[in-house]
Structure formats: structure tokens, C-alpha cells
């Protein structure tokens, strides 16, 4: 049922993938790590340790009973020196466990390769691994692997687009952890009884494509995609690979598709072999303020400052540091911020390279509409938000916006279109809640 | 610990595009037409254009001061309006009248409605039409290229005027039309220069090809259907100027390509109807102004169909 009736828009961005050929290097154990209790979409974890406790590498230090959550593990062995308040970039206050590392990296006895022999034990193992989607959103992976109706999923889509500029961590994972990746794919296919796997890669990653193509089988295929941002958006990727449209209000699972990030799968393979939960993270450290851009393997909770020091420190005074790529990444307030599970890059821009948009009136040029991969009308959202016009926002489908930032990237008037979209969604949600409350 | 970090919403990178850059490109694209006008009609063409630009920028500055808005002359849109207005005027027009036109374009049409992006009709065209109805005689005082640009100069009908009133003069040849050797407003006569500018705008992606192609194509087709000479109609009067520079004004043309197509088609119909059946020999300005007024309606009709919206689902089910 392949129907490519339309070509999705998007934008061409300069890649800055200078780190694509730099192998992942393991960072030495830092002196201290700060591990916040919110690292994923879903419920907040509760600390399982007290101040003064001695913890081992891979020991579970935070968990909760909620069905949408993932446990959090110690990334170093050492002593818990503090459990303090921590404000996330979403401005939510939670607890953070501060561990002073002893440098021995003693592994907890619980770290054993999981016994997986059935669907249930597989899901249980994935949950215990603490894995969340490493592509950025941080959705607990075991929940993704539990479709509403078991057996309804037939295709695994491996998202290896990595369309954000600068980031090359997925690319490195494909080159260096291909064994783990394929092991994870096969395991997922086995326990979820899937028919096929499609690995979607943007064409600018020639080496990774060549490597993976050598290993493709009848059931695991590598498919290349045009190098266009936001190719890695879930809906965009599914359409590009299968021609299927994820309708409003639907999940990919409703089409029988499970989308997983390539790094998440590579980690899953690693976990199934070694039993070490998600305590390390490979990430790209790049940007004009970084002296030696690298791909590094870092313990969770290490501060950005320590990671950047490992990369030679700052080349010049940083003006802006964000987690994730420049199109959707979130700014941090200072470089003492810890590395989180879903962090795939630290980008630091030099003061002179920071772009500070100054809003000017919309000139109605329509570039945002032509850039939008989902054919929305961002300039109209902007106006509707200014008017507080919820009806217009609803009919223009602001709720479909995935905040990829293409509109704001191309806007000649520098309108804060992503903010307008967010505000529009918020207005719509509030209006919907009020309606429900009224009835 | 590094302090003083910028914290802002994504995206953290941005394309090079800016309003100022777009307007600068439009100004550059109008240079060939300005040069051609100066060659054809003498230095007064340059003087008139310079006056219009200065007046427009000046009025923009004063209006911004008066309404306590941020000073917007830096975006160069006022300069574009000034130059476009000048290119729509006869070379002999007295400067004070041009100043009135500039006032109307910037203060009445643009700033009174909220400044850039808010005007409901093209300011330069509205000013031209206002001048045309207010000062009918000076505004239709066309001199032939090469003649002194004084108010006493011998007037000559435009080619369209000649077509409308048969026997009022010898019609210029296609070549003369192409290089602009005939009576008309400053910028509309030299088709060659306008095409260079238009292609420049298309190549730099300042404008989309939909409006110029549809407009020019539809005018040719309608003229052909009515038994007129399509090529002659395309190269005389303001069709080319209108198609590339006037009808494509961002604020006053529909935002989607579908809307732009309908709009350009409407412009073409009205142009041909006025030219062939109306009492005015030329209808480009009126047609674009009328379609400007329809733009909000067209925009309402031509919203995009979001990817994966329920609307699409219904259609698929039917299919």
C-alpha cells in the first residue's frame, strides 16, 4: 500500500558533522556526578538511597511504581554526599542524587546479563535496563515495546536519520556498535514476532550505510533517505520509508510500526549482552566554543563542564550551550548541568556565533508554510496566538506541530514561530480542558 | 562555571534570510529598469526616482516617530515602495505631485494600517492610482524617449492608447517595445530590463514563479482568445512590471501557491477585460489592486491540508 502522494517539505541545513569520523572515546571517571530523578517522559523516580550511603556502579538508585517510568542507576561507585533539589530545563523541581566517586568503579552484584526467554522476561529486562528513547524525547523504551494489542506490530523502523546538524553520535554507534545493534534488532523481532525491520538513514552517512548494508538480510533492510531536516521526525521517517501516514491522534503502533532510535537499540544490545544498565551515554560534543570536538562515552550525571574539559575546554567564551542539536536542542542555564539519559549532544557556541533573533513584523512571505514538513501554516498560528483565537488554532491544526523549528529557521522576519506554536498548543489544551471541565 | 549564557527557544541556528536582505534584492532587481529609464527618458527619470525614494523613507521615518513605532526604515521596504512608485510615474510629473503620492503610499496605505506586512493593497500601486484619478492630465503626459522631459514636451500616446484609439499614431514594432522605445511610465517600457530584474528575483528566490508565469501566461491566452495580439499586449503597458514586481508584493498577495495561482488568474482576467472592453487603455494597476482586496478571501479558501489531518483520512476512505 505504498502511496507517496506528496513530497514532504523540510529545510537544508549546514551539517557541521565534523565529528563523524572521530571514534567514540571513553571519558575518565569524574569526581562527582549529579543524577536527577526526572530523566524521561513519565513519572518522577524516588531516590532509593540516603545521604552517606555507599553505592556501586550500576546499582539502582531511583525508581517508582508508575507504569510509565524507568529506573535510574548509579553511574559511578562512591558515596552519596547529597540529595538536593534540582530544576530541570522544563522548570520542574525534582531531587538529584549527588555521588562522590571513589574511582574504583566497583560493579554492583545485580549487574548480570538478563535471563531473557519470553516476551514478558524481555520487557522486564528492558525496564530494568533503565532505557529511554535516546533520540531526544526520552520515552521509556519498555513501554514502547508493549503495544496495546500484542501482535499488532509487524515492522520495526530503526531511526538512524540523525538529521540535526553537528550530532554524529548515532553515526558512530552504527559504525562501532553494529554487533549490538543487530543483536538488539533480532531480539526485538524475535520477542515481538515482527516481520521486518527497516533501518532509515540519511544519505550523508555513506560509511554507516555501506557497513550496515553488508549485514542486511531479507528481514532487516537498510533504506536511505534524502538528507533533509527533519528526516528523523517520526511521521516524516515513517512516510519516507513506508509511504504510510500517521494520522492525527494515531500512534505509529496503529499502523503496525514500532520506531526506535538506533542508539537506543545499540544500547539495548549492549545491555542484553553485559547486563550493565543505562549508566553511560555516547554523545557528540561540538560547536564553535569547543576546542576539540569529539564523540565521548560519558557516565550519566557528569557535568557539562567536566565533559567539555575532557574535550580540551573552551576554545573561546561560550555564549550558548544546548543539549541536543541546534534545531531542537534545549539551552542550559550554566555548564554545571548534568548529562541526562536522553542527551545525545552538547553543543557550545562561541559568543559571536550565537544567533539572537530580533522579532520584526511578519511580511507574509509564506516561507514558513513552504518549509513545514507537515504542511502547517506557522505564520497563521502566530497571528491566531496573538489574537487568542482558539477556533483558528484548532482548524489550522496547531496540535500536529512537532516543533521541528523549520519555520523559525527560514523566517526572514525572525518571528519566534516555535514559541508561537508552543503557545498555540497550550491555548488549545487549556480550552479543551475548560470544555471538559464545563461539561 | 560559565556565566552569562544565552537561554532562548530553539532553533539556535537561522538561515541568512532577513526582511532587509529581501528588500535589498528587490532594489537590486529594479536597477536595470532604473538604468533603462534613465537612458530612455534622461536624467530627470533618475531625479524623480531619487525624490520618490527620499520622500518615502522620510515619511516612513516621520510616521514611525509619530505613532511611536520602532524605526523601520532600516528594513528598506520604504525605499522599495519609493522606487516602485517612481517607476510607475510619467517622467514629466512635477515633484510635488510625486511627494503627494509618496505620502499616500507610506502614511495612508502602509503605516495607517499597521506598517510593513499589514497594508491591504500595494502601497506603490495605490499611490499611482490615487495620482491618476487626482491628476489625470499630468499622470498621462507621456513623452517619447529621447525628448526633453519637460511638461511642454510633445506628448505621445502609449502603445495601448494607440490600440484603443485606432489611427492615433504609428504603432511601435515588437523590437521597439522590447527595448522600451515608446511612450509610457518610467519603468514599464523597457521589457528587457524588467525581464533581467524579474529573472534575478526568481533566481534569488525572492519571489515564487507562480504569479509572474500565471499572470503573463493568462494575459496572453485571454488576448489570443479575444483575437488580440498576445505578444503585443504582454510587451506594452505595465504587464511585465506588474507581474514581476507589483503583483508579487508579499503582504498583498495570497500566501500559498494555490492562492497565488487564483490571484494571478484574477489579475489577468481583470487586466484583459479593462484593456479590451473598458474606457481606460491600461488595466494592470486596477486589476492588481482589485485582486489585492480579494487576497484575504483567497487566503481563507486556500489553507494548506496538514499532513495526517483528519480531512485527508476521509478522502482516503472514500478512495
CATH topology value of the largest domain in chain A: Rossmann fold
**H/E order of the elements of chain A?**
EEEEEEEEHHEHHEHEHEHEEHEEEHHHHH
Indicate the low-confidence ranges of chain A by residue numbers.
none
CATH architecture of chain B, by name, is Orthogonal Bundle
Order of strands in the sheet with most strands of chain A: 1-14-13-17-15-16
Radius of gyration of chain A, taken over Cα atoms and rounded to an integer in Å: 22 Å
Percent in helix of chain B = 55-70%
Q: Could you report the average pLDDT of chain A, rounded to the nearest whole number? A: 91
Major sheet of chain A: size, sense and barrel closure? 6 strands, mixed
Number of domains of chain B: 1
Spans of chain B of at least 5 consecutive residues whose pLDDT stays below 50 are 312-319
Q: What's the β-strand tally of chain A?
A: 17
Instruction: Please summarize the sheet with the most strands of chain B.
Output: none
SSE order of chain B, one letter for each helix or strand: HHHHHHHHHHHHHHH
Would you give an account of this structure?
The complex is a heterodimer of chains A (439) and B (319). The mean pLDDT of chain A is 91. In chain A, β5 (60-63) and β6 form a beta hairpin. Chain A has a six-stranded mixed sheet. Chain A is α/β, with parallel strands linked by helices and 439 residues long. In chain A, α4 (178-192) packs across α7 and α10 (378-387) packs across α13. Chain A has helices at residues 119-128, 141-144, 169-176, 178-192, 206-214, 234-242, 262-274, 304-310, 367-371, 378-387, 390-395, 406-410, 417-438, and strands at residues 24-26, 32-36, 46-47, 54-55, 60-63, 72-73, 78-87, 93-101, 155-160, 196-202, 220-225, 257-261, 280-286, 294-299, 318-323, 330-331, 345-350. The longest helix of chain A is centred in the C-terminal third of the chain and has 22 residues, at 417-438. Chain A has three domains: 29-109 and 280-353, Ubiquitin-like (UB roll) (Roll), CATH 3.10.20; 119-274, Rossmann fold, CATH 3.40.50.11540; 367-438, no CATH class. Chain B has 319 residues and is mainly α. Chain B has a single domain, classed as Ammonium transporter fold, CATH 1.10.3430. Chain B contains 15 helices and no strands. Chain B has helices at 19-41, 43-66, 77-87, 95-110, 123-134, 136-139, 159-164, 174-179, 191-203, 210-225, 230-235, 239-246, 257-277, 284-301, 310-318. In chain B, α2 runs antiparallel to α3 (77-87) and α2 runs parallel beside α4 (95-110). The interface between A and B is large, with 72 and 42 residues.
